[in-house]
C-alpha cells in the first residue's frame, strides 16, 4: 500500500470506505493490466513450486504448491479472480490461505476463495482483524500441508499483528522461502503504521536471523524505487549499483524482480543495515542536543523511514 496519511489510514482500515477503495483499485488494475503488472516466473524445487501472481497495480500474491499431492497454499490473495485462474491452470486444490496482515490489498480475496474452496482454511494473526479468519496463528506456529512446512513469525510494526511466513526448505532439499508481506521488500521495508521504530527494528531483526540463501518473496514490486533511495543514503555501495542495473533491465521488460535472497538484502537494503557506520555517517549529526551522541539503531531506522517517505524516485 502506497504512503497514506494517518487520517486516511484510519478510514482505510476501520471503515467500509477502505473496502470500497480496494474494490476500485481492483477494477482499475484489471482493466489496466489484464495479464498482470509484471511477468513472473515460478520456482520449481524438488516437489515444491512457488508461483508469484501479479495483482492490483504492484502487489504480489503467491501459490505454494506441493506438486505431488496437488495441494496449494495461497499467500495474500488480494485478487481472487487472478488467484483462482492460477489454481485452475495448475490443476491444484486450494486448502489454505496465509494472510500476512489485514490490509485489503493483501486480504481482499479471502472471502471469495474460502467460499469457493469449502475445505480451505484461512490463517493469520488474531490481533489483526483478518477477514474470514478461521485458524489464528501465533509466533512460531507451523502450518503443515502435504510436504509443506510453513512457520509463522510475528513481525509487528506495519500492523499490530503482522506475520511473515517461512517455508522450510529441508523437506525438499532446497532454500527456505520467506513470504514477507509488507515487512520487507527488495531494498526496502514497510511503513510503521501500528508500532514504533523499536517494534519494527525487532521485527526486521527476526528475519535477519534467517539463512543467507533464504529466498525473499515480498508483497509488492517496489524494487526500482527502493534501490533509488538506497543510492541516496549509501551511494558508494557497489552491491546496490549492480542490483539496480539488473532491476532496471528487468523492469524495462516488465519482468518481476522476485525473489532476491536475504544475503543480497544484507548487502544493499539500508533498513537491514542500521548497524553500519557508513549509514550513521551518511545521515549526519545524531538526534542528541549536541549532535555528538549518534543514532541508536531504532533512531536510525526511524530517520531512514522518514527520508524514504519524502523520497521521489528520479
Automatic annotation (TrEMBL):
Keyword Ribosomal protein: no
Residue runs in coiled coils: none
Pfam families: HAGH_C (PF16123), Lactamase_B (PF00753)
Domain of life: Eukaryota
Keywords noted in UniProt: Hydrolase, Metal-binding, Zinc
Keyword hit for Cytoplasm: no
Family: Belongs to the metallo-beta-lactamase superfamily. Glyoxalase II family.
Cofactor(s) of this protein: Zn(2+)
Organism: Vulpes vulpes (Red fox)
GO molecular-function terms, A-Z: hydrolase activity
InterPro entries linked: Clx_II_MBL (IPR035680), HAGH_C (IPR032282), Hydroxyacylglutathione_Hdrlase (IPR017782), Metallo-B-lactamas (IPR001279), RibonucZ/Hydroxyglut_hydro (IPR036866)
Boundaries of every Metallo-beta-lactamase domain copy: 58-220
Name used for this protein in its record: Probable hydrolase PNKD isoform X3
Amino acid at each position: 500500500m502506497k504512503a497514506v496519511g494517518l487520517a486516511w489510514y484510519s478510514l482505510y482500515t476501520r471503515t467500509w470506505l477502505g473496502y470500497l477503495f480496494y474494490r476500485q483499485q481492483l477494477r482499475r488494475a484489471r482493466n489496466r493490466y489484464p495479464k498482470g503488472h509484471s511477468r513472473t516466473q515460478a520456482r520449481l524445487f524438488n516437489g515444491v513450486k512457488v508461483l508469484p501472481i501479479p495483482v492490483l497495480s504492484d502487489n504480489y500474491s503467491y501459490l505454494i504448491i506441493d506438486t505431488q499431492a496437488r495441494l496449494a497454499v495461497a499467500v495474500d490473495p488480494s485478487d481472487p479472480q487472478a488467484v483462482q485462474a492460477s489454481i485452475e491452470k495448475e490443476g491444484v486444490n486450494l486448502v489454505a490461505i496465509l494472510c500476512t496482515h489485514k490490509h485489503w490489498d493483501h486480504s481482499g480475496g479471502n472471502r471469495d476463495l474460502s467460499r469457493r474452496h469449502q475445505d480451505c482454511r484461512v490463517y493469520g494473526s488474531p490481533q489483526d482483524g483478518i477477514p474470514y479468519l478461521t485458524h489464528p496463528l501465533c509466533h512460531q506456529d507451523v502450518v503443515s500441508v502435504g510436504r509443506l512446512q510453513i512457520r509463522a513469525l510475528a513481525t509487528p510494526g506495519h500492523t499490530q499483528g503482522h506475520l511473515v511466513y517461512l517455508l522450510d526448505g529441508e523437506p525438499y532439499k532446497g532454500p527456505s522461502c520467506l513470504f514477507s508481506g509488507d515487512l520487507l521488500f527488495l531494498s526496502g521495508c514497510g511503513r510503521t503504521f501500528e508500532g514504533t521504530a523499536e517494534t519494527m527494528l525487532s521485527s526486521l531483526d527476526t528475519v535477519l536471523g534467517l539463512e543467507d540463501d533464504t529466498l525473499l518473496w515480498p508483497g509488492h514490486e517496489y524494487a526500482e524505487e527502493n534501490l533509488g533511495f538506497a543510492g541516496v543514503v549509501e551511494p558508494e555501495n557497489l552491491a546496490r549499483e549492480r542490483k539496480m542495473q539488473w532491476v532496471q533491465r528487468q523492469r524495462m521488460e516488465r519482468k518481476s524482480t522476485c525473489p532476491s535472497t536475504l544475503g543480497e538484502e544484507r548487502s544493499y537494503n539500508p533498513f537491514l543495515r542500521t548497524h553500519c557506520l557508513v549509514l550513521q555517517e551518511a545521515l549526519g549529526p545524531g538526534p542528541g542536543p549536541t549532535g555528538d551522541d549518534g543514532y541508536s539503531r531504532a533512531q536510525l531506522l526511524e530517520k531512514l523511514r522518514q527520508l524514504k517517505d519524502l523520497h521521489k524516485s528520479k
